[in-house]
């Protein structure tokens, strides 16, 4: 991602959340999705870029079209420009229908709050706040 804000937010935690509805089932799906996405980031798999909504990708790359934004994302992921801190763990996850919020801690780096939306049966990150 072009901006330092996006790099820090992504590197701080992970892109995550899964499940429909709340409860422990939703929480387990969130954890599973979190692990999968972290694995994609660590292995520099550009497929992780499909885990962003179009709005998020456009806002964080400064591009005016989604295709260009995804291309930038892929380059950054493949080059390792999106750091994945060690010691990342889920603090709390809440799933509510087609939206989810996940709070993730990164040792020495604070908390990241991810807001997710379900699109085409896939959870995608729609916004991130680093605290």
What features would you describe in this structure?
With 131 residues, the chain is of the alpha+beta class. The protein has helices at residues 4-12, 23-42, 54-61, 66-79; strands spanning 88-96, 99-106, 110-119, 122-130. The longest helix is centred in the N-terminal third of the chain and has 20 residues, at 23-42. The protein is globular. Residues 1-23 have low confidence and may be disordered.
Instruction: Give the strand order, joined by hyphens, for the main sheet.
Output: 1-2-3-4
Please give the alpha-carbon distance between the first and last residues: 19 Å
| Averaged pLDDT | 76
Largest sheet: 4 strands, antiparallel
Number of strands: 4
Regarding quaternary structure, how should these chains be classified? single chain
**Uncertain segments:** 1-23
Shape: globular
H/E series:
HHHHEEEE
Number of helices: 4
Radius of gyration equals 13 Å
Strand content: 25-35%
How much helix, percentage-wise, in residues? 25-40%
**Structural class, from secondary structure content?**
alpha+beta
List the helices and strands and how they pair.
Layout: H1 4-12, H2 23-42, H3 54-61, H4 66-79, E1 88-96, E2 99-106, E3 110-119, E4 122-130
Antiparallel strand pairs: 1-2, 2-3, 3-4
Helix pairs in contact: 3-4
TL;DR?
With 131 residues, the protein is an alpha+beta fold. The N terminus is likely disordered.
What key attributes describe this structure?
131 residues, alpha+beta, four-stranded antiparallel sheet, 4 helices, 4 strands, 39% helix, globular
